[in-house]
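Why run this: before we spend reagent on co-expression, it is cheaper to look at a predicted model of the complex and decide which construct boundaries make sense. The entries below are exactly what would go into the expression plan.
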Amino acid sequence: MFALFLDPLYRAPILGSCLICYAAALMGVCIFLQKRALVSEVISHAAYPGMIIGALVAGVFSSDHWIYLFTGAFLSSLFAAMFLQWLEKKQVSTDAAMTATLSAFFAVGLLFASYLQKMRPTLLVEVQKCLFGEVVTILDEHLLLYAVMSVCITAFVYLFYRRLQIHLFDPVYMQVSGIRGRLVTRLSIVCLVFSVVIGVRACGVILLSAMLIAPASAARVFSKSLSSMFVLAGFFGLASAGMGNAFVLFLSRENGLVEPVFLPTGPSIVLSALVLVIASYVFSPRKGFVMKIIRKAAFQLRSTQENIVKAIHKKQQGFSDLYQTESIPYLPLWISLWYLQREGLLCKKSGLYELTKEGSRKALRLIRFHRLWEVYLTKYMHMPSKHVHVSAEEMEHIITPEMALRLDALLESPEMDPHEKPIPGRFA
Amino acid sequence: MYATGALSFQDLSIDEVQIFSLFFFSIATGIIGVFLLLRRMLMIATALSHTVLFGVIIAFLSIRFLLVDLSDLYQYPIYLFISALFSAWITALLELFLTKGLGIQKDAGIGLAFNAIFALGILLVTLFTRNMHMGIDLVTGSIDGACLQDLRLLFYVALLNSAFLAALYPALKITSFDPILAKSLGSSLALCQYVLLFLTAITIIASFRATGIVLVLSFLVVPYLCARLCTAHLSKIVFFSPLFGSIASIVGVAFSRHILSVYSVALSTGALVTVFLFIEYGCMLAYQSIRRQMRRQVIT
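The model came back. Tokens follow.
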């Protein structure tokens, strides 16, 4: 599969789409953080009429077309971006206004497209490629343009990082503190339009806004700072382009599974991006589903270990005794015992487990937390003493030494718990 | 044909078919658009406009297992209903999953959801029909190739939306403006919401053969904005909104025909009608501001 990256037929499309999606992802971070995902839709749809008008102009001059297309698209997207800013200043930037703008630009584009169809049908074919993106026809000479664009956008983000940071997170402060921000805001719009206009080649006008939002969403999960977010978003953009291309190429060649079929690349890139986003959120280290399960299991294991320590403190037991009396399943029991021995809290003497000095200290600590909590519940929560044991059984695993100090101070160093048992001292 | 003095549907020329189709189309979108905007459901409508493609494919797959041509859609209304239901359902589902289940921020979640479903729809279309141009037809609309079946379809959709309006008008009025009062009065909030979503999906699917999925959004938004400039009464807005849409349709089709006959350039009628819709809005804005100026002059 990696040979495909060097294959002269495929390397330009793959590298080209990777560069395009990388640049789009970088600017997408700005859009994402400003919570204006609809803006990317409007700008990408606005590129369409510009391309058509550029093609018409090119038809008048009968010359090399792509520079006209590009300039036309750039100007019309820029115009749309500035129009949206004007709308925002006038406080009209509701969903309705943006949808109407999107539709208006597209209607003008379609109108001129029908005219172009009569005048220069070949040019129209070129432009229609940009509706859904056509990666297959990217050539080596286009790669230079995309590389230059990626470098420019990376340079912009790197050089203006500080001011971009302030602009994204606190634009009011930027205005008030006199930091020269107008250059940054204008350049960021220009870069956004630049990346969109080039990016419609890969994903198409209709789907490009997903390539702006998705890598940024995925990066948001793992990043704690703006710089890491930019890096990760760029990486995810590259990755989704790579995965999309790999998927399409895999299906289009002879493989052992299914018949070769040719799928468009733009949609597969978008779907790979979606998969990346979902995977990021599922495996997120803070709120992810997978990490929640892992953390829960780790906590259960730790509680099991502490229960074992308490049980052995009460009475020295062997493995099967523990298995029966504490009703702990076999595997967690085995793992806990192994871990406790490794930590030096347990040692085995003639088939029975015994606590070491560390172990008994820990057991006494646990008992202290347990009984402190029971006193707290009876004294402050006025719970009857026969009900406090269950809650204390759970809380003893959660109370930290600092919390115990505070409880101690609050309860004025109690000596006895509600069941008339002594509370082990602070330095047991 | 003998001159009997009676007009039959077979005798309509293509222009007249177009005018009638767009007339029914503006009734359908005008009615639905008013309530979509009042309930701020426009983002969902944009999302639906992209996901109906996927819904259509699934409907075909579930019934017939082979997607042949989008015109089959109109011969069997059952396809239409299942597609609309499925699109509305999957849009709401995916959006809920992304924003509430995973925790992505709201606008990014919706944008991602509908783009991804649209991408999936395009992939499936290409897979089953080996024809990528179907996607382009969806986007540009094909009112220029309007035939009687489209007219019939748009008529039924307009009828459906009008019936919805007539039947649920009081409930719609209350639930759009004051959901809390509606709940306390016992009006069915959920019913209005779901029926509205379902009908939006049907209207958008009907627009495949009218203006295309992007331009239908302007048909949903702009007539309401024009009507809103005229009046603030809901009953009048609901009447004026299809009216503005129809005016734009008739003028647009006439203009397109004129350009075709005089300059022999075949412009896309759907796009032309949309542009006239915006010109209409511009005229209304200008008219309102002139009236305001004159009123100010009279006072001072």
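The first helix of chain B runs from residue 14 to 38. Chain B has a mean pLDDT of 83. Bring this page to Monday's planning discussion.
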